[in-house]
Amino acid sequence: MDSKLQIISGKFHGRKLYLPRGARPTQNRAREALFNMIASGLFTPNESFTVWDVFAGSGAFGIECLSRYPNAKVIFTDISTESIQTVRKNLALLNVGNAAVSEQVDALGAVKKYAPTSDLVFVDAPYDAAEVGFSFVRLLTKRAKIGTFLIWEQEKSNRFEAPKGWQLFRDKTYGRARFLILRYIGE
Length: 187
Fold this sequence. Notes:
It is a single chain. By secondary structure, this protein is an alpha/beta fold. The protein has helices at 28-39, 60-68, 81-94, 107-114, 130-143, and strands spanning 49-53, 72-78, 100-104, 120-123, 149-155, 166-174, 177-184. Helix 4 (107-114) runs parallel beside helix 5 (130-143).
């Protein structure tokens, strides 16, 4: 495996992950900073919660959650067959057992199924399809439970206005990526 993508911390620290062709993974340093933000006020290490890695790609975000939070359950979705196969390959490599579910599905179509039970939703739509991310968040707003955290990665040049019902918790830029951490407080 010649990938430079690896798990930053926790049980799987340093393990390299497979990447699907053409993937644009969140850089290791940006992911590390993001998880520092999560640790400083979103979830505690022994807390049980459900994470939905929506446009999973390699599954790096969700796998990092599994590595750092032993009681986390992670749902991985992606429309790409290759991406879901890569996620499953990475999960098998790490032997995570029943802590993860992966499904090949369109993100917009999966909102009804996964939004009501997710405590943390990670959205990293393709940069060249930013409107898909905006459409997803609009649908998520109709199904999210109060208190759900949304981590929305988008290209830093994208316009942003907190959707109704979401409170901006953090807004950080790392290189080309902008991370918006929002909490659903209800409409």
